[in-house]
Amino acid sequence: MRVKVLGKPSFQEAAEALKRSIAEHMVAIVVGRCTxxxxxxxxxxxxxxxxxxxxxxxGSVLLHRPxxxxxxxxxxxxxxxxxxxxxxxLRIKAVRSRPxxxxxxxxxxxxxxxxxxxxxxxxxxxxxMDEHLIRDLLAEEPWLLEKGLRITEKEKAVRNGYIDLYxxxxxxxxxxxELKRVRASREAVIQLKRYVDYFSGELxxxxxxxxxxxxxxxxxxxxxxxxxxEYKKISLRRLYKRVWERRKGGLEAYExxxxxxxxxxxxxxxxxxxxEKRGG
Amino acid sequence: MRVKVLGKPSFQEAAEALKRSIAEHMVAIVVGRCTxxxxxxxxxxxxxxxxxxxxxxxGSVLLHRPxxxxxxxxxxxxxxxxxxxxxxxLRIKAVRSRPxxxxxxxxxxxxxxxxxxxxxxxxxxxxxMDEHLIRDLLAEEPWLLEKGLRITEKEKAVRNGYIDLYxxxxxxxxxxxELKRVRASREAVIQLKRYVDYFSGELxxxxxxxxxxxxxxxxxxxxxxxxxxEYKKISLRRLYKRVWERRKGGLEAYExxxxxxxxxxxxxxxxxxxxEKRGG
DNA sequence: GCCTTGATGTCGCGT
DNA sequence: ACGCGACGTCAAGGC
Lengths: 280, 280
Prior knowledge:
By secondary structure, chain A is of the alpha+beta class. In chain A, about 20% of the residues lie in helices and about 40% in strands.
C-alpha cells in the first residue's frame, strides 16, 4: 500500500494526480467543497457543500455528505472517469454507458487529495444465515419445518419465478415453501400465492403454501389465511445453531457463500432427500 | 473545514485521535489492513485486507473494499462507537441497539488516519422525475396519459395498498393507473391487478387498469393482456420537458422533493382536478 | 442482453 | 414503533 497526500493542491495539480490515479487503478479520496449534477435514470442536482469523493480501483465513484449511510451521488463500477482542473475548479465527470448516466462533481475548493495505490484485498467475505443457507439447511432437515415433510427440490424454476422449497407432506400433498429471513410482509404472501396459483393452474392440483419466516406482519397474516395459506415461524438463532452443530459434527460443509474464494455449493441441486429422521 | 492527517500512527495514537473525532462529531477515515466481524440481522466475517473505514459525523460507519459500490460492512447512524488501541492493533466497535447489531473492525496495520472537522453541508439535494413528481404532473395534465381522462385522486389509499392515480375516462368508466418510473416487470402488473380486483370486489364495478411506464418486459405485457389490463408507454424525457415548461411558465412550483431545505409539497393532496383541457 | 430474486438492503412517509 | 412502497436501488445467478 502506497499512500500519497496532497494538502490544498491547485485544481490543476489535483486533476493531474487524479488522472494518474485513475489510469493506475488506485483509490483516490478528494476532500473539499463541491456541487454535483446527475443525469441518467433520474436527474438530480446538489448544491454546494463539504463532501468526500471516493474513486475506487474499478472506477466506482461515491460522493458522500458528512452524514448518512448512503452516498448522495454515485456511479457504479462500469464508469469512465475524467478529471479536469482549470482556474475555475476541479471537475470530475463519471460516465456510464448502459444505462447512459452522467455524474459531474465540481469542486471549487479542494482541501485534500489522498491517493492510495496497491491496496490488496483478496479476503473472503463469509455471510452466515442468508436465505441460501437457510434453504439448504431446511432442504436437508425438513423436519425442522414440519414433521413428515419431504423436500424434493430447491429453488425450483417455474414460469412465475422460483420456488424456494418444493416437496410433499406426510399425507402425500404437494407443498410449496416460500422462505423469508426477515419479517414477512404482504409482498411475501403475494409471491407465495403466485406459485400456488401456478401449480393449481398448471398441474390441476392445489398444493399447500407455507410461508416460513421469523415473523409476519398482522396484515400479511390476515391475507395469508384469507388465501388459504399457512405460516410457519422459524427461529434464525435455532437454525444457526443447527448449522453450527452440523459443521462441528463433520457432516457436509455448510460454509456459507463466499464472495471471493471457494464457493460452498455442495452440488446436490437435483438430489432427492429420501430419509426422514424423526429426531425432532 | 479542518483536516488533520496522521501517517502510520501507532494503534494507541490512532485510537486516541478517533475517540476525539467521534466525541467531536468529526469525520474520520482510516486507511489500513483489517479484518471485520458483524453480528445482528445477519452474521458475517471478513478476512484480512486493505480497506477504507469511514466514520461520519452522525456515527455512520462504512467499511469499503478497494472496489465496488457498496460497503462490505457498515453500521447506520444510530450506532455507538468505541475505539481501542493496544499493542495488538486498533479495534473499532460500532454497536446499534435497535435492532441489536455489532460491527467490529480490527486493524493490524494503520497506514493513515484522516480527521476532518467542521464539514458544512446544508445544500439542498433536488431530485427530478421521481415517481412522486411524475404522478403530480399526470394528475394535473391527465391528457398526457389519455385524451378525456379525468383524475380525481392521487395515491388513493385502499385496503390493498395505494393506487397511484384514480379517475374516470371519457366514457365515464373508472380508471386505475399504476405508475412505474422504470421498466415495468411482472410485479407491477400484479400490483395493478390487485387494485383492480379490489375495486371489482368492493364496488362491484370492474375499472380499467392502466400500467403507465417507459417500457415493459414482454412477459409482463403478455400477463397484462391475459388479465385484460392495458399498457400506456410514457416518455420520461417528454414529461421532464413538460415539467420544465410549466416551471418556466410560472405555473405552480414543480420543484421536486428536497431532502434538505424547503420541501415542495404544493399541498393539493385532496384537490379535485375539474378542468380537462383537450390541448393534446 | 433480459429477467428474477435477495439484501444486515436503505430511505422516507404515514399511522 | 410497525407497515408499506420506491429506489439512479446494487449484486448475483439463469437463460
